[in-house]
Amino acid sequence: MDSGLGGECSGYPKAGHFVQRLAATGVDLASVTDVVLTHLHFDHVGGLLVDGVKEHLRSDLRVHVSAAEVELWRSPDFTRTAIPQEFSEVIRRASAAFLETYRDHLCIFNEEQQVAPGVVARALGLPERLQGPVAWRHVWLGSTAVG
């Protein structure tokens, strides 16, 4: 799932409209039971940090994410990257905010986890620079997956 940039980066007028985009497809935030995140880059979790989003989600929401990804973003190390310092601070701030905001909703898994009947999230074990991306497959019929 990619919830977009959210409000972290100015100059992107199409950012921060996650709720409206879901509503346009007929998805009400209050009906979302599970979110599967492939990784915790700020351009994937930022939409979940926009003011008012969490308040519209279910109190029993489950956010599935790999343990490797959570570990990486709890204390990201940008010393071996070409990311400018000011940009790394935006990234660090967003990942910390996400982990804090959704800490009680995280369903952290090592290798794979059943998200729903017929839906499995699986950690791919990619190279360190892509630390914990998750692949997910679904085999159910008559449901909608937003990703």
Major sheet details: 3 strands, parallel
The outline comes out as globular
Query: What's the assembly state of these chains?
Result: single chain
Radius of gyration in whole Å, from Cα?
15 Å
Number of strands: 6
Which structural class best describes the helix and strand composition? Answer: alpha/beta
Write the element-wise H/E pattern from the N-terminal end onward. HEHHEHHEEEE
Strand content: 15-25%
Point out poorly predicted stretches.
Answer: 127-133, 136-147
Averaged pLDDT:
77
Q: Give the N-terminus to C-terminus distance in angstroms.
A: 4 Å
Strand order of the largest sheet: 1-2-3
Question: What is the helix content?
Answer: 25-40%
Number of helices, where a helix is a run of at least 4 consecutive DSSP H or I residues: 5
Question: How would you describe the overall organization of this protein?
Answer:
With 147 residues, the protein is α/β, with parallel strands linked by helices. It contains 5 helices and 6 strands; from the N terminus they run H-E-H-H-E-H-H-E-E-E-E. The strands form 2 sheets. Strands 1-2-3 form a 3-stranded parallel sheet. Strands 4-5-6 form a 3-stranded antiparallel sheet, with no helix packed on it. Strand 4 and strand 5 form a beta hairpin. It is globular.
Secondary structure blueprint with pairings:
Layout (H helix, E strand, L loop, with lengths): L17 H7 L9 E3 L5 H4 L7 H4 L5 E5 H8 L10 H17 L4 E4 L2 E5 L2 E5 L10 E5 L9
Parallel strand pairs: 1-2, 2-3
Antiparallel strand pairs: 4-5, 5-6
